[in-house]
Amino acid sequence: MSVSNKRWLVIGFTIGSLILAACGGAAATGTPAAPAATQPQDTGMSAAVTVSTADSPLGTILVDGNGMTLYLLTGDSADASICTDACAKAWPPVTVSGSATAGSGVDASKLGTITRADGSTQVTYNGHPLYYFVKDQAAGDVNGQGIDKFGGIWYVVSPSGDAITASVPSGDTGGGSAAGGTVAVSDSSMGKILVDGQGLSLYLLTADSADQSACTDACATAWPPLTTTGQASAGSGADASLLGTLVRPDGSTQVTYNGHPLYTFKGDHAAGDVAGQGINSFGGTWYLLSPAGEPIQASAKTDSTAQPTSSYSQY
């Protein structure tokens, strides 16, 4: 073979090698494998979301397909979310790139979606945008219930699509509920009054009828009902024969005393506070109760540790 032919053979071999290498590189840098699916409880994102129901300490509530609790924010308006940035990190929106499906106990006609400010699609139920809470680590956790943050209050959602405003029982934070719905008697600037298991003052609303509450929605946010998941119990000084319960529209069980549905007040921050006394709002007047279960209609003493009721005229 001549030197010239050998030169062309080497050049041809080199070009062929480069072509093969280029083909191999294309195969290696082709479309990457799809990443593992992200768990909804981590970021709120899923290709498909199932909204279902489950039992919880607050009764039957909405959950996702993994049993993680779903919440609404009272600051949202119908089909519009105000939760962005830091709020959305603490309360990840339930977003979907496909469709939302109605699971057990859920009304499919109440499911919907909205487009968020970042372009993602958020699932709604009964017009309420739905969220997770980052501190819920397992199915059944309801650590976000009753938290007042980011322009509203966070509540779990009933199968009807309404906020369940009851507080978590068994000593968790939040006004209104205690294990067994304890009612006791305590001394105050207004004399002996009914209090809950944490010593917070209890109130009645004159607009209520016997064993029936007229306080829902915004009213129940300002005046959380005293709820229980078991039997109401009589603490020191309370008459057990006067205790009772009623079922609220959201399915929670509210404690009554002498036929009066009982409430705490968001304006009371510590045991002994009676800032709700005599406030006229939500169709009636709010009064403390005597150990006999009667309204105490005297005005609150402004020289006590309680704050004047005029400070809470917004309620």
What does this structure look like?
The protein has 315 residues and is α+β, with helices and mostly antiparallel strands. It folds into 2 domains: 40-164, no CATH class; 182-312, no CATH class. It has 4 helices and 21 strands. The protein has helices at 3-28, 40-43, 86-90, 218-222; strands at 45-46, 49-56, 59-63, 71-73, 95-96, 100-102, 111-115, 121-125, 128-129, 154-157, 163-164, 182-188, 191-196, 203-205, 233-234, 243-247, 253-257, 260-261, 280-281, 284-289, 295-296. Strands 14, 19, 20 and 21 form a 4-stranded antiparallel sheet that branches. The model is unreliable at 2-44, 170-180 and 303-313 (pLDDT under 50).
The whole-number mean of residue pLDDT values reads 80
SSE order in H/E notation? HHEEEEHEEEEEEEEEEHEEEEEEE
Oligomer: single chain
Number of domain units: 2
Instruction: Indicate the structural class.
Output: alpha+beta
Alpha-carbon distance between the termini? 104 Å
**Overall geometric form:** elongated
Q: Give the low-pLDDT segments.
A: 2-44, 170-180, 303-313
How much of the sequence lies in strands comes to: 25-35%
- Tell me how many strands there are: 21
| Rg over alpha carbons | 29 Å
How many individual helices? 4
Mind describing the biggest β-sheet?
4 strands, antiparallel
Helix content: 10-25%
Main attributes of the structure:
single chain, 315 residues, alpha+beta, 2 domains, 4-stranded antiparallel β-sheet, 3-stranded mixed β-sheet, 4 helices, 13% helix, disordered C terminus
Layout of helices and strands:
Elements: H1 3-28, H2 40-43, E1 45-46, E2 49-56, E3 59-63, E4 71-73, H3 86-90, E5 95-96, E6 100-102, E7 111-115, E8 121-125, E9 128-129, E10 154-157, E11 163-164, E12 182-188, E13 191-196, E14 203-205, H4 218-222, E15 233-234, E16 243-247, E17 253-257, E18 260-261, E19 280-281, E20 284-289, E21 295-296
